[in-house]
Structures are given as C-alpha cells and as structure tokens.
C-alpha cells in the first residue's frame, strides 16, 4: 500500500464521495478512482459499493479507512517529530575548549552566529586540549578549541584551522620580569600538564619551581599573584580575562602556543563550520590590531 492510497480511502470515508475527496486532496477524480482501484487490487476485496448516484464503503473499506486514519496520524506525528529534531540538530553546538578560550573566543563568535542560528542549543565543556580532541573523535562534541606547542598536523580524521599564535608571559607584580628572578619564589600552577610546562620553563633556567598553589581558575591565580603570593606563566589569551591593575606581564622569549579550532572531517557544512569561521574571523581581526 502507498501513502497516497491511504489518504484517498480516508478522504472518501470522511467526505462520502469521490468528488469531495478529490477536491479535498486536490486530485483529479480519475486519480482518486485509480488509487481506489489499485487499493482494492492490493487487498483483494471490494472497498466501495454504489448506492444511488454515490458510493459507500463496504465493511472491508470501513476497516481499512479506520486503519488508514491511524497510520496517517502516526505518519504526520513522526514527520513533525523528525522535523523538530532536524531543526534542533542544525542548531545544536557542542564545544570543548580551554578556560580562556571559553571566556574570550566563544562568546563573541556566538554573537556573530545569532542571526543565522537564533535558537542555538549550546553545550560547553572546559577541557584540556588532549581531552578535547578525543571528545571530537568520539562525537561527544562538535568543535574543540585547543592549543598545541607546534604546528604538527592534528590528524587525518579532523578538519583543523589554526587561529593564532598565543605568546606566553610571566605574570608577576614586577615590570620586565624574568623567570630567573623567581628561583626562590612561590609558583602557582593549574593542572598537572600546566605544571609540567612551568617546570620546563624553570628547568631551562636551572632550577625546580616550588609550587605552593594549584588552581585552574585564572582569576584566582591572578588574585594570588597580585597579592604577592606567587608567580605564574600565563598565555596572552588568558591575560585578556583578568584585571591587570596590579599585575605585570613579561613576555617569555620563544614561548608561545598555537591555538586551533578542530572538528570532524566528516561533519560537513553546518553550524560547527560556521562557528569555526566566526572564531577565525575574530582571531584575524585581533591579530591585525
């Protein structure tokens, strides 16, 4: 049975005539008669009988019309549900990113997308770059904003766009400061991977840093530095998010990270690619200043 045939038997049952059914369905009368004839062939029973100048449904026709009505209702409900889900998926955006990217890159990029995607369903995860890349691989997020120490390829499974180079600074209360000046200072670190980066910088100057505070919140880190309770290395993106009134950022020679936006190569056009383009445009604008 075809859906059009079910619509015809339903319309004939409700309107009581082939002419009225044809008008309701915007079919020619011959088309309605053809669909009825094909349906009767399929079920092997007469579905209509003549009564005077009109027709009525046989018991078999009435049963089929009732079942057709149920099927058509479920089809319409399913179509509406699928349409709603499709609309939701087109507007769903799942992002994994490091903290300063969530603060400085994501909000202005989303502002650019509001006209094209007014009903964005947003999911955000703060995530280390290695973890964020795996989340993309497992299709748990659509986009990862991540930083890497070099320009090595991310992988064949991904579409990756390099956004900018992010210089790393020594954050302290002293202008033109150096790491060597803080051999005996307290150091502040975030995650284990972040602490490994601080240790590498300090070991290059011939000492092991004494880490006295561990927190991944960059505003807490900045507050402790401003209070003279320690120093920390911090990338330029993070510096945009903190109050620098009582702080000084001294650039570290040859220390920079590369910031990338990554999605699955199989993702195709859509909101994820449009978001990456928005972030890339913002990054280019910032670099040009």
Could you walk me through the main structural features you see in this protein, from its secondary elements to its overall organization?
- By secondary structure, the protein is α/β, with parallel strands linked by helices.
- It has two domains: 3-89, Arc Repressor Mutant, subunit A (Orthogonal Bundle); 98-289, D-Maltodextrin-Binding Protein, domain 2.
- It contains eleven helices and ten strands.
- The strands form three sheets. Strands 4-3-5-10-6-9 form a six-stranded mixed β-sheet. A two-stranded antiparallel ribbon has the order 1-2. It has a two-stranded parallel ribbon with strand order 7-8.
- A hairpin with a 2-residue loop joins strand 1 and strand 2 (54-57).
- Helix 2 packs across helix 3.
- The radius of gyration is 33 Å and the shape is rod-shaped.
**Cα end-to-end separation:** 66 Å
Number of helices: 11
Total beta-strand segments: 10
CATH fold-level assignment of the largest domain: D-Maltodextrin-Binding Protein, domain 2
Describe the structure in brief.
With 289 residues, this protein is of the alpha/beta class. The protein is built from 11 helices and 10 strands.
